[in-house]
Write a structure and sequence with these properties.
It is a single chain. The chain is about 25% helix and about 30% strand. By secondary structure, it is of the alpha+beta class. The strands form 2 sheets. A 6-stranded antiparallel β-sheet has the order 2-3-4-5-8-7, with helices on one face. Strands 1-6 form a two-stranded parallel sheet. The protein starts with a helix and ends in an 11-residue tail after the last strand.
């Protein structure tokens, strides 16, 4: 009986360690929306890639910064994170506390806009 309890305790301990050592795929939006690139990188890590991107309905190209293996993409306007694209694999926390003007659900990601300013987004 003692050996069963000992093995059960070890199993529970290993299970707890596995849960808490797994990297969390979450994002607190309040740390990103309307923040500078430097502030965003403090949370997300260094930008991994910058791509040219033309948002739907616009004729100009934006520079879209990719983080966390492309699961988070940010377009900066006037030096602030304005359009944020987040993969559905990321758990968004504090959505209700973040100050943004719109949220769009696309096929593979969610788009969050800090402002409703339309027009060329090429300014960084």
């Amino acid at each position: 009986m003692v050996k069963f309890i000992d093995l059960y305790g070890v199993f529970i301990l290993l299970l707890i360690l596995a849960i808490y050592s797994t990297p969390q795929k979450s994002l607190d939006l309040t740390t990103i929306v309307s923040k500078s690139q430097q502030q965003a990188e403090a949370v997300l890590g260094k930008v991994e890639h910058v791509e040219k991107y033309t948002p739907p309905g616009q004729k100009c190209e934006c520079l879209r910064h990719l983080y966390r293996n492309g699961q988070i993409k940010i377009i900066y306007k006037e030096g602030k994170a304005d359009r944020i694209y987040i993969s559905y694999d990321i758990n968004i926390i504090d959505l209700d506390k973040a100050k943004f003007t719109s949220l769009h659900r696309w096929k593979n990601e969610i788009e969050i806009r800090a402002t409703q300013v339309e027009g060329c987004c090429a300014a960084t």
